[in-house]
Automatic annotation (TrEMBL):
<keyword id="KW-0418">Kinase</keyword>
<keyword id="KW-0460">Magnesium</keyword>
<protein>
    <submittedName>
        <fullName>Ribokinase</fullName>
    </submittedName>
</protein>
<dbReference type="GO" id="GO:0005524">
    <property type="term" value="F:ATP binding"/>
</dbReference>
<dbReference type="InterPro" id="IPR029056">
    <property type="entry name" value="Ribokinase-like"/>
</dbReference>
<dbReference type="GO" id="GO:0046872">
    <property type="term" value="F:metal ion binding"/>
</dbReference>
<dbReference type="InterPro" id="IPR011877">
    <property type="entry name" value="Ribokinase"/>
</dbReference>
<dbReference type="GO" id="GO:0006014">
    <property type="term" value="P:D-ribose metabolic process"/>
</dbReference>
<keyword id="KW-0479">Metal-binding</keyword>
<keyword id="KW-0119">Carbohydrate metabolism</keyword>
<dbReference type="InterPro" id="IPR002139">
    <property type="entry name" value="Ribo/fructo_kinase"/>
</dbReference>
<keyword id="KW-0808">Transferase</keyword>
<feature type="domain" description="Carbohydrate kinase PfkB">
    <location>
        <begin position="5"/>
        <end position="287"/>
    </location>
</feature>
<dbReference type="InterPro" id="IPR011611">
    <property type="entry name" value="PfkB_dom"/>
</dbReference>
<dbReference type="Pfam" id="PF00294">
    <property type="entry name" value="PfkB"/>
</dbReference>
<keyword id="KW-0547">Nucleotide-binding</keyword>
<keyword id="KW-0630">Potassium</keyword>
Length: 299
């Protein structure tokens, strides 16, 4: 079982002619509300991919529909608490090129007490996995406790903040980073080559398996002497929101099923390529059958 200590947000989407500039008032031409949050997106993607995932989350009581949606997708939601607090939400602008800008309000995602997390870690099995992103509070504490219990840790340092760089990342078995996150963790300048980023990540975290996602430039896996490249799929993105989350959920499900790293990369990249052609966060995450069809393995 994988336990995902992750955010749940209500995403408010606006299609815009361009991302709003400082001081500008801009009219959007489409508006929708959907389930998002990096944590919820990754749980839902993992469940759609056939993985076993339990979500540790906090959700405003009025947004209980979000819990049902995760449950319908196959996520174990027993450990999602409904609380009398404003829930997390995001204001997401998507421009005509599919680029986005996200304003985040953490709300209930930042209300975890150490006691409640202790109970969740206590209930997990020592050989279970923990997955986390950077949208919930008490992150360092959770990583240390989960590691002390013997759990394997997968971490996605998104969104990147100064505090993340100070986390005990050496406790992680698996790290998922995009270009910006890799640059921030290694101190390399913007635009550094993939090989330089991977070298610097390996120097900093020699025991950690690293997956570097580069959007339209493909993805890499690195561990020890092994370095694998997954070429990008030729697609025109409509909305890149949650593409990284889709990738991570599909990767982890494939890994949980015992697939080798190159297969995990291929399935994850294929799922993300389908996702970027659709609008929204959880709404864009494909079903496993769609991914297998594109992989040429459909029935
Ligand atoms: O990664 C995409 C997600 O980031 C923010 O957490 C939004 O809620 C959105 O769903």
């Amino acid at each position: 079982m994988l336990h995902n200590f992750g955010s749940i947000n209500l995403d408010h989407f606006y299609r815009v002619p361009h991302l709003v500039r400082p001081g500008e008032t801009l009219a959007g031409h489409d508006y929708r509300v959907g389930l998002g949050g990096k944590g919820a997106n990754q749980s839902l993607a993992m469940a759609r991919a056939g993985g076993q995932v339990r979500h540790w989350g906090r959700l405003g009581r009025h947004d209980a529909w979000a819990k049902e949606l995760l449950e319908q997708a196959g996520v174990d939601t027993e450990t999602i608490m409904l609380v009398d607090e404003p829930g997390g939400h995001a204001i997401i602008q998507v421009d005509d090129q599919g680029e986005n800008a996200i304003l985040l309000f953490p709300g209930a995602n930042h209300g975890f007490s150490e006691a409640s997390l202790d109970e969740l870690i206590e209930a997990a099995a020592p050989d279970d996995w923990l997955l986390a992103q950077n949208e919930c509070n008490a992150l360092a504490w959770v990583l240390e406790r989960a590691h002390a219990k013997g759990m394997q840790i997968a971490f996605n340092p998104a969104p990147m903040t100064e505090e993340v760089a100070a986390l005990p990342l050496e406790l992680c078995q698996l790290l998922f980073v995009n270009r910006g996150e890799a640059e921030a963790l290694t101190g390399l300048p913007e635009g550094a080559a993939a090989n330089e980023l991977l070298d610097a990540l390996a120097a900093r975290l020699p025991d950690t398996e690293t997956v570097l996602t580069l959007g339209g430039d493909g993805a890499w896996y690195q561990h020890g002497e092994t370095r694998l490249f997954q070429p990008p799929l030729p697609v025109t993105p409509r909305d890149t929101t949650a593409a990284g989350d889709t990738f991570i959920g599909y990767y982890l499900a494939a890994r949980q099923a015992g697939m080798p790293a190159e297969t995990c990369l291929e399935r994850a990249a294929t799922a993300a390529a389908i996702g970027v052609q659709r609008l929204g966060a959880t709404e864009s995450i494909p079903e496993l059958a769609d991914v297998e069809t594109l992989l040429g393995q459909g029935t």
